[in-house]
Amino acid sequence: MNQPTPAIVAQSAVRRLPRWPLLLLCLAYIVPGYVGREPWRMADMEAFGYMRELALGNTAWLAPRMAGLPPESEGLLPYWLGALSLQSAPSWIPAELAARLPFIAMLALTLMATWWGVYYLARSPGARPVAFAFGGEAQPTDYARAMADGGLLALVACLGLAQLSHETTNYVTQLGCTALLFFAAAAMPYRQRTAALALLLGLPGLALSGAPSVAAMLGLGAAAIAFFSRTWGDDPFAQPRAARAWSAGWLAATLLAALLTWWLDQWAWRLVDGSTAKEWRSLAQLLLWFSWPAWPLTLWTLWVWRRQIAVPQRNPHLAISLWFAAIPVGATLTTLPADRALLLGLPAIATLAAFALPTLRRSIGALIDWFTLLFFSVSAIAIWVIWLSLQTGIPAKPAANIARLAPQFVPQFSAPAFAVAVAATVGWCVLVAWRTSRNRSAIWKSLVLPASGTTLAWLLLMTLWLPLLDHARSFEGQTRLALAALPADVRCVQTYGLPRAQIAALRHYGNIDTQRLSMAGAARCDWMIASQDTWLDPHSVRLHPQWQQVARAVRPTDRKDFLLVLRRTAAPDSRP
User: Fold this and answer.
1) In a 3-state reduction of DSSP, which class is residue 498?
2) Backbone phi, psi, residue 308, to 5°
3) How many other CB atoms sit within 10 Å of the CB of residue 379?
4) Mean local confidence (pLDDT), 411-429
5) Contact at 8 Å (CB) between 89 and 159?
6) pLDDT, tens only, 222-268
């Protein structure tokens, strides 16, 4: 007898993953990286700067500007969310944290939407396991819940998700809106109203977050999948009018999002032309580490489910997942920046990885466990050893290396951070002991250690190493050195050759107004902060007689990166 699916799962293999450990894992993944740190270079600080300008009323909401400059990253939605949060947050919440609150919600929404998306896809008739002759096969609801647990664990385990999902940038809102669309496509046969709401929020949100072309392609693909579907809900032979209605709904929502993007002038392309074609080696490396360990499982899914993939109209669980993974992967190959384009495909890639779990051999699961155990245990030990070296000087070599790379860094001890790190490390040890002991089989078991190991490494970095990372990746140190060279009553500073992120840092940390210096010399401020590389450029020589250098501020971790503080000594030259 031909098997309708390659999934052969007994009821004993779909036992429920306890909710409180899963929720605790998600909380430990979401919160670190958002709380207690400074905005980092470059996109994180730049986005915060535009949110601050909107919140202070210094720029228009439909055309954000900072010192007359538009943002480099397309999209309006992330700036609106951050600015509204800044305006509504109480004064006792730091501005940096207040701006991050919507993005914390976006990451939580991504995890939640992915879980429910996998759940409803696993309930579709083509995804269900084979029925046994004498019973005992996994029940559909229990099977779908176990698969959803596995999909969520696979998403958290992806290495590329950690840093990018903890920034206050448009890529986080893109990720959240993509996850909403993924949920809408998966749940439309089961939860009509909830899926419709997710569709109406997700498509315009993705388009207004700087990815209108991706939104259009995802919407058109979902419409085609719904139109040609030969299964709907729990009935494997149904061809209801609801599928056609949903197809029309996806098309209408896509058109609405496109018109809204056109009206707000938000269409943008970041295609790679022939003169700047990407190196295939770097792309391969990105694909290998960014979605690890989900991509090997995804490849296994493509192989063992190949017969079902050939009939997409009867297997929407594969068609939807493949489409939502293929579009971001295609964008990764053709647009910039590549890693942020690939970020949008992680929910679907994690879903495909989850569908490999019912078909994995025990030896493969053991290989994943042991590799994960060794990799993340060694990583955790390395993080702890370097932290101990900074605090105590033992061993001496790591502290000496850091002192050489960041000579101005002063180690700090935080009792709360230390307690959280110890608790996470103890939890990892307990989890390893549980996983290596004899336990009943569960299809999600092979992804427990990868997800927990990724969370442990991220949490240790955001607690034990956070002062060091802030020192290395924040603009605060260099900016405050430059601001200290200015008189106390200065409220206006010109900038020359500074990126948007550094301008945002000056406006935030100094609470001063900045104006760009033009080559024509028309300016109203008597003080200027300039990039040394730009100031020493031959094109800037004609400006030198008008300004006198007062101080230099070095970047703490780069002795070649200087900010120059200059004072006007002559009237601007108005000659062309």
Assistant:
1) coil
2) -75, -35
3) 16
4) 95
5) no
6) 999 999 988 888 766 566 788 999 999 999 999 999 999 999 988 87
